[in-house]
């Protein structure tokens, strides 16, 4: 099994699902005359991050994993999205980056040390495989699932098949 098939295929599938879910949310918000900004600022709990930040972080965990494991230059995407269209554009940039990351470099990076920031003044180092499987992948799915749950909590009619976008079509 390769890094691409083990983790990055799931990132790509789920980012595409989030993109499609954003379309459904925007359409349903328009039908129900809900300001999309209300959905984008919604959170599951007062101490949790809002929907927009959940999408940004899901994107960041996929992008950062691809860059850190492969050793590629990590593109910087400022967290400035305020609309559905801007969130979709961020997802598209991350999809393009992840899809174009070199497979051989990803596989080789699993055995190498990966160092990443932990807060503003500390770093953590672990093997690429551990970073990918025990840190990046769980964090990615946490934020993707939380974004999905925020929309459901706000009455957007999406279901499990939307989250599993395309997996049953293959």
Automatic annotation (TrEMBL):
Name assigned to this protein: DUF1993 domain-containing protein
Listed Pfam families: DUF1993
Top-level taxon of the source organism: Bacteria
Gene3D superfamilies: dinb family like domain
